[in-house]
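Appendix B. Extra example for self-study. Work through it before the problem class; the solution is given directly after the inputs so you can check yourself.
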Amino acid sequence: DAKTTQPTSMDCAEGRAANLPCNHSTISGNEYVYWYRQIHSQGPQYIIHGLKNNETNEMASLIITEDRKSSTLILPHATLRDTAVYYCIVRVLPLNNNNDMRFGAGTRLTVKP
Amino acid sequence: DTEVTQTPKHLVMGMTNKKSLKCEQHMGHRAMYWYKQKAKKPPELMFVYSYEKLSINESVPSRFSPECPNSSLLNLHLHALQPEDSALYLCASSQGQTNTEAFFGQGTRLTVV
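Solution. Structure tokens for the complete assembly:
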């Protein structure tokens, strides 16, 4: 029972912004939205996370809708090295040793020259 | 040091062999995870240890046996595996009680012959 829905694949031109959507319509009030990416044959890499406010770091921005049912990861200036599978994950704050982190199918982003 | 180290990087084993995968981190993280990833699929959660106690076992067959001897080490003991168990095995760690990110190792590529 997937908590998130993402497009299977997306293309983006190099230098342009990549906007990756994620639907999490059943998200609970205590669940955070995390984004990871996995470049071919490497371990997943953390990108960003948020609860309800928009977040920005050196890698990306995360926009969460007011109802929290969907979010968008934005890579502002995509490069060829951003080609990867991007995973949107919903997880609770890990209190009481509940460290549960499960991946959905993800979006395969291809950045083209 | 924000590294999760997995050894070996590659392993070929016969169906009657016993082998172990090792994962190590020195970030003071108290949650550690094992994932299995087949080609072109997302990582699939197998086990989670929280504060050295097994907190999640995703109904993994008993031929996979996890062990957490201390807060820095996580092992996965393998015995009587099947060819379909061939996959990339990923280890991850996170702080444990806060909403911080998880760090992943580069994985062990396992081939069962």
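Self-check: Chain B touches chain A through 29 residues (CB under 8 Å). If your reasoning did not lead you there, revisit section 3.
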